């Protein structure tokens, strides 16, 4: 019988947001700009190359939603309302600290919300094309990435050189490799942590002030987890159902489905969504024109705003095999049309190609349906066993 040991190097990630806020204060005192971004499509390397610090403003909690609903329609996804609610109520310290904001034309709700948000702080909107294979789309996106660079230079007063950008490409690739190596420890038994343990590790990558210290913490964790794994330490019994979660991003405050799976005896071995592997799976090519390389890498993000979005199907299918999963949970946020429409095709792939049990959970950030979802999750895990 394996023994559950909470790895000691996890605790720094559990308190990462607090640490980040202190670091942001010092960075601002030294004249560094803070750049709020909302989405995995924002090329963070450009922000760093200008000596500024990117932070995520993607709302994951229920509390600010009532502020948003005074202005926005209630039938928008909770992520949009939470993000907007934080901004209008000025209750998110990361939003308050941001000197400028980067938005992206991903889904309709988000881009219309940005029309209001952009009046509040200096704002740059990246116009995202919806094709990942058309050469003209890549040219358009590269132009957008270059236009963002000019905006950031104007706001920070720092000229970005090709060398600055190249250095940041290397640093972010290194960070992605480490996150991926940690995620891949879950590919087989034993697994010294569970999905809830890894959530703050993955989420903390959105609030990094000092990249070197963050890298060091990731290395420490990777080393500790690798040793525990080698020694046969596992957070769960060998027969715990292994679940892949796909769909909309989740985070601290909106992790109820992940929590329910693990409270019900399963383990989320892999999150394909933007909180998980989708955000660090692809690296930026390190040779050649850095703007072309950045544009290409970010455009290939397998988000449901893309059409077609073959990359998501390929990624889910690859991960299901690599992580040897027993079932797939597709979790969507209510009123997220793009992910909700893709659900049917993901379900077909699970049944006909992967031969895996599948469940779709469409929910919001509130706790109203938690007990009902618990029953569904328990029944799903029981069916797998
Ligand atoms: S799911 Fe799509 S729109 Fe949402 S954060 Fe990820 S890339 Fe951005
Ligand atoms: S979850 Fe869906 S609706 Fe909400 S912001 Fe992301 S893509 Fe848009």
Order of strands, widest sheet: 2-1-3-4
> Which structural category fits the helices and strands?
alpha/beta
Q: In CATH's first tier, which class of the domain at 29-160 applies?
A: Alpha Beta
Our Rg estimate from Cα atoms comes to 20 Å
CATH architecture title of the domain at 29-160: 3-Layer(aba) Sandwich
- The dominant shape is globular
Roughly what is the average pLDDT, rounded to an integer?
97
Q: Care to count the β-strands?
A: 8
Brief characterization of the structure:
The chain has 385 residues and is α/β, with parallel strands linked by helices. Helices cover 50% and strands 11% of the residues.
Structure description:
This protein is 50% helix and 11% strand. The protein has 385 residues and is α/β, with parallel strands linked by helices. The chain has a domain at 29-160: Rossmann fold (3-Layer(aba) Sandwich), CATH 3.40.50.11890. The strands form two sheets. A four-stranded parallel sheet has the order 2-1-3-4, with helices on both faces. A four-stranded parallel sheet has the order 6-5-7-8, with helices on both faces. Helix 5 runs parallel beside helix 7 and helix 8 (135-156) packs across helix 13. The protein starts with 10 loop residues before the first helix and ends with a helix. 46% of the residues are buried. Bound molecules: iron/sulfur cluster (2 copies). One iron/sulfur cluster (SF4) binds at residues 39-41, 106-107, 249, 274, 301, 303, 305.
Task: Please write out the topology.
Elements: H1 11-14, H2 16-29, E1 34-37, H3 44-49, E2 53-56, H4 65-68, H5 78-89, H6 93-97, E3 100-104, H7 108-117, E4 123-126, H8 135-156, H9 162-184, H10 195-204, H11 211-230, E5 242-247, H12 256-263, E6 267-271, H13 290-299, H14 310-322, E7 327-333, H15 337-354, E8 358-363, H16 370-384
Parallel strand pairs: 1-2, 1-3, 3-4, 5-6, 5-7, 7-8
Helix pairs in contact: 5-7, 8-13, 9-11, 12-16, 14-15
The site of one iron/sulfur cluster has 10 residues, from loops.
């Amino acid at each position: 019988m394996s023994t559950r040991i909470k790895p000691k190097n996890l605790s720094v990630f559990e308190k990462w947001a607090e640490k980040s806020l202190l670091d942001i204060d010092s960075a601002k005192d030294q004249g560094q700009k803070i750049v709020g971004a909302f989405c995995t499509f924002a090329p963070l390397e450009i922000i760093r190359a200008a000596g500024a610090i990117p932070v995520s403003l993607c709302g994951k909690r229920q509390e600010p939603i009532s502020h948003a609903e005074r202005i926005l329609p209630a039938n928008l996804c909770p992520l949009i309302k939470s993000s907007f609610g934080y901004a209008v109520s000025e209750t998110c310290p990361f939003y308050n600290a941001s000197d400028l904001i980067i938005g992206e034309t991903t889904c309709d709700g988000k881009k219309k919300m940005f029309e209001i948000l952009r009046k509040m702080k200096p704002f740059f909107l990246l116009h995202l094309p919806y094709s990942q294979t058309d050469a003209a789309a890549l040219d358009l996106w590269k132009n957008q990435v270059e236009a963002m660079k000019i905006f950031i230079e104007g706001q920070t007063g720092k000229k970005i050189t090709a060398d600055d950008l190249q250095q940041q490409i290397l640093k972010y690739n290194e960070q992605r490799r480490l996150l991926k190596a940690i995620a891949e420890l879950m590919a087989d038994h034993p697994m010294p942590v569970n999905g809830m343990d890894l959530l703050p590790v993955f989420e903390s990558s959105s609030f990094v002030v000092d990249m070197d210290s963050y890298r060091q913490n990731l290395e420490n964790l990777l080393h500790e987890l690798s040793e525990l794994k080698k020694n046969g330490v596992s957070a769960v019994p060998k027969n715990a159902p292994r679940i892949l979660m796909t769909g909309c991003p989740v985070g601290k405050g909106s992790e109820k489905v992940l929590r329910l799976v693990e409270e019900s005896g399963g383990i989320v071995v892999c999150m394909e969504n933007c909180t998980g592997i989708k955000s660090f799976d692809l690296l930026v090519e390190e040779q050649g024109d850095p703007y072309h390389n950045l544009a290409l890498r970010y455009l290939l993000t397998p988000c449901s705003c893309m059409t077609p979005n073959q990359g998501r199907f390929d990624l889910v299918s690859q991960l299901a095999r690599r992580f040897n999963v027993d079932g797939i949970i597709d979790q969507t946020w209510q009123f997220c049309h793009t992910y909700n429409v893709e659900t049917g095709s993901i379900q077909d792939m699970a049944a006909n190609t992967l031969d895996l049990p599948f469940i779709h959970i469409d929910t919001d950030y509130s706790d109203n349906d938690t007990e009902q979802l618990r029953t569904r999750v328990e029944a799903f895990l029981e069916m797998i066993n």
